[in-house]
Specification:
CATH superfamily of the largest domain in chain A: NAD(P)-binding Rossmann-like Domain
Largest sheet of chain A: 8 strands, mixed
Helix content of chain A: 25-40%
CATH topology of the largest domain in chain A: Rossmann fold
Number of domains of chain B: 1
Oligomer: heterodimer
CATH superfamily of chain B: Ubiquitin Conjugating Enzyme
Structural class of chain A: alpha/beta
Strand order of the largest sheet of chain A: 3-2-1-4-6-7-8-9
Protein name (chain B): UBC core domain-containing protein
Structural class of chain B: alpha+beta
Keywords (chain B): ATP-binding, Nucleotide-binding, Transferase, Ubl conjugation pathway
Number of strands of chain A: 15
Largest interface: A-B, 76 and 61 residues
Strand content of chain A: 15-25%
GO molecular function, one term (chain B): NEDD8 transferase activity
Number of strands of chain B: 6
CATH class of the largest domain in chain A: Alpha Beta
CATH topology of chain B: Ubiquitin Conjugating Enzyme
Pathway (chain B): Protein modification; protein neddylation
CATH class of chain B: Alpha Beta
Number of helices of chain A: 15
Distance between the termini of chain A: 52 Å
Radius of gyration of chain A: 26 Å
Radius of gyration of chain B: 23 Å
Strand content of chain B: 5-15%
Number of domains of chain A: 3
Function (chain B): Accepts the ubiquitin-like protein NEDD8/RUB1 from the ECR1-AXR1 E1 complex and catalyzes its covalent attachment to other proteins.
CATH architecture of chain B: Roll
Order of helices and strands of chain B: HHEEEEHHHEE
Helix content of chain B: 25-40%
CATH architecture of the largest domain in chain A: 3-Layer(aba) Sandwich
Chain lengths: ~450, ~180
Amino acid sequence: MADAGAHQSSRSRDLDKLLLRPGHLVGPAFEPGTELRDDIQEYARILVVGAGGLGCELLKDLALSGFRNLEVIDMDRIEVSNLNRQFLFRLEDVGKPKAEVAAKRVMERVSGVNIVPHFCRIEDKLDEFYSDFMIIVLGLDSIEARSYINEVACSFLEYDSNGNPREETMKPMVDGGTEGFKGHARVILPGITPCFQCTIWLFPPQVKYPLCTLAETPRTAPHCIEYAHLIKWDEVHSGKTFDPDNPQHMQWVYSEALKRAALFSIPGVTYTLTQGVVKNIIPAIASTNAIISAACALETLKIASGCSKTLSNYLTYNGVEGLHTKVTEFVRDKECLMCGPGIFMELETSDTLKMLMDKLGDEPQLLMSGVSVKHGGKTLYMQAPPELEAMTRSNLSISLFKLMEESPKGILHVTGTAGKPGKRQSCSTKLRVAFKGVAGIKDTDMAGGA
Amino acid sequence: MIKLFKVKEKQRELAENSNGKPPVKKQSAGELRLHKDISELNLPKTCSISFPNGKDDLMNFEVTIRPDDGYYLGGTFTFTFQISSIYPHEAPKVKCKTKVYHPNIDLDGNVCLNILREDWKPVLNINTIIYGLYHLFTEPNHEDPLNREAAAVLRDNPKMFESNVRRAMAGGYVGQTFFTRCI
């Protein structure tokens, strides 16, 4: 027993220096002590999204940073090409779900940690699943997946009557990303720091070659590959969709690209390049993943414990030549449809959709006319085109309360022309709607994309 | 934040989710932006839009173009649009459903229009694309060929190109290829 205790204390020795002692660089609500350390072990539930290059590192780092309740979600199975850097996986694991193997391996090596794997798509989980976590850490490689998690996290956010975010509804995210020798780590506190959507312009546009170049004047190996992938595939397999995860499909594209390259005497088409071009894969570097994950794990610990102020708010790392890192403080888009407060409106349960639209014209912050309205997946009213206008016109005389499934509050998205005369322009905004006299109402509402 | 979360966790243990209502479907940023694009559509008389999946699926729609000028006068051409959840960061995927004899549209419906691929910018919108497609019919261009034979005929023998287009639109063979009637 004495041995076990000594082992335990040596494992948390460095962590204790951060969590048990006061300091002058700490976060605002930091209360050092063993209770903090124990609470992190007992209550902090962290979700790691992705169990690939970053995910493996993140799980290990978080487990060794004292977090004991981790869950990991990933839809992929292990491939041979993962083994050089996704160090939790072995040759005999090829074909098994990444999340399950990663969870098992970390639990074998780090005593006391419990990791629940989820082998599924992120869209398969209900919002309640995501809402249970204190912090969501992202180790992803796609904009779509980040965007989706961001939508979910922002949908939990509520604002008070002064338009300030309510801290207890905030779902912090820590996002890591790498491309070769470059990487980023960022802290997203919805309502406080820019959300993913606020700064989506940071991502460079994907490289897309003109189709006619591919068809007529290929000059590079990627041109030949994209010809096989985008044009030749459809010509030969009419109606059958190309599946980038099907090795036979990929092999077919590769062999067609080779023929094409031979025809135009273009060198450089390989199977790896074919995969790279078709799936947009950038070679991953193990050390970049390790560095970015370490930064993310540390930020997660800082958010949970308050032992230091968090990164504010976007760290870039570049190891291409020498080493360069920089932290940039990006600002929120105040009108962001995902994390912004939008406009709050209190309505009578008898108010019709038409009455709401008229109110938007009088609302001093908006003065909106030509309004179209959406609620969740439902199109409530469209000004144009005529086909949609006709399909939605009957909603105008129905009470909004009914159209919103008699929820006491909810989110609408409206678009139209807004602003003072002479300065009117096209505008989209979120409306937080609450109905008077319905039980359970406060003057707050969700900010999220709902 | 741990204190806050601890309180929340304890409350959660006490009262498991009381709200029995099904969750409201979340809207992707792409859907919200598209909602704006669609509500602001301002199409020429020659173009119309339809939503085969009904009013609640705006992400998949069809645009029909009936050119009122040029080689394709009188034809009816339908394009399918697929919009991604990260629109407008990513351009819509557009294909021509109608088989057409056209230098910039191949027989599988791939369309060579710069703003659909290399020159797409998030400030562009659905309206711009529809105008771009319309433009392809009034001014087909032999310099960016996807259908090389059609492009060569347009370049070398516009009269023959015109009669080929007519024959294809009326339903018939041009060379080895059969086109269904679209007039």
